[in-house]
Amino acid sequence: MTENEIKKLQEENERLKKIRPKSNNEKLLIGIIVGAFVGFVVIWGLNIASDYQKEVYLIFISIFIFIAILFLGTVWFRNRIIKKFFGKDVDFDNIIEESQSTLNIVSEKVVQTLPIESTDKEKMKLYAPRIISFLLWSNYRNWALRVMLTFIAGCSGLVVTMLTLNQNKLFESQNKKMDQQTQLVEASRRSTQMFIMGEVLSDLNTELKDPLNKKDTLSNTLVGRIISLSRSMKPYKYLQSYREGGYSDSLAFTKIISPERGQLLITLLRSKIDSVFFRKNILGRNNSNFSYAELNNANLGKANLPKTNLAYVNLSFANLSDANLPFANLSDANLSFANLSNAELGNANLTYADLSNAELGNANLTFADLSNANLRSADLRGANLSNTNLRSTDLTNVKSLDRTKVDRYDWLTFIRDSLKLKGSEKIYNEYRVDSTHRSYYYINKEIKEIMKPILIRKK
């Protein structure tokens, strides 16, 4: 070798020495990261695939059949394939004998170069081809066994995993049904209070029909029974059928609600109890409890319910036009699509209430608390929002605020810049504040007219 070649080899050796092989810790860390990623992908994929077990099995069987057909086709048409790629015909009938003969020749040549005795060379010539053939066959056999075992283990693992995921889903479904059964038992137990309510209402009817009861009042005993009954009718969940996708009937639990409280309240409102007596002795925050009452689609027009506890009630699609609800607790109530036109809601608690698509035309909401309420697509035409708490209220796509009364001339700027309410930007661009709203006050024995701000839609 020349000096240049020796120098190049030395430089190459130095370069290879500088290349630091990865340590076992680095390899372990890389393996953990890759394994975690692969495991996450596999678990995620199997969770999705568990919903389509039949399809997964069919795809897996189809792939297996395709591979088997491809393997058989390769064996059957091996002559054409080899000729296509190598341009030569191969006689597979004699290839084993030719391979063995070639192996013998190679082993003889190798043995002849070995520095051993001639007798040992003869033995090596005899045993070398056998040993090489055995090693080749052993390697091929081990490779085939590993491939087969890996394939079987993969199939078994896939099947077991799919069955486990399916079993978990069955357990979840069973637990859900058990929970439904528990809720149904509780609902059945509480529905027995309907019999008690029947007795109370029967006694109520008897007292109101008494000719001596000219004031249409009730005895203290019956009033106490009504209040106790309203408090004992605890809300619960019950199964309700609904149309899923418009094709089939399905069952689902309602939200926590009390249908019995709703029926009791409607019955009391329809009775001929003196309104002042009813408001003073039965209603009120310290008396009856009608929270969580189910009153959807109820006709409560002109209902007189001041200071009534109606938190979490379901009044969706209900008619509450001209209703009297000052100081009422309607927090978290569902009033979506309800008709509240001309309703008296002064000082009412409507925090977190759902008033989406509600009709609030000419409703009085002075000093009412509408913080965090949902007023999406509500109609507030002519409503009175003076001193109303609108913090975090959703006013998105409000249908109308025309002639709505407010308490400040910068009301539009206030809800947009200070309160930053949803939908306030659109309201700011579509309305302006005018001074056409007149309020009358009795001051120093004289009635004085004071101009108040009102919202007018821009032309």
TrEMBL record:
Transmembrane segments: 28-50, 56-77, 143-165
Segments forming a coiled coil: none
Keywords associated with the record: Membrane, Transmembrane, Transmembrane helix
InterPro entries: 5peptide_repeat (IPR001646), Pentapeptide-BTB/POZ_domain (IPR051082)
Gene3D superfamilies, per database record: E3 ubiquitin-protein ligase SopA
Name of the protein: Pentapeptide repeat-containing protein
Source species taxonomy: Bacteria, Pseudomonadati, Bacteroidota, Flavobacteriia, Flavobacteriales
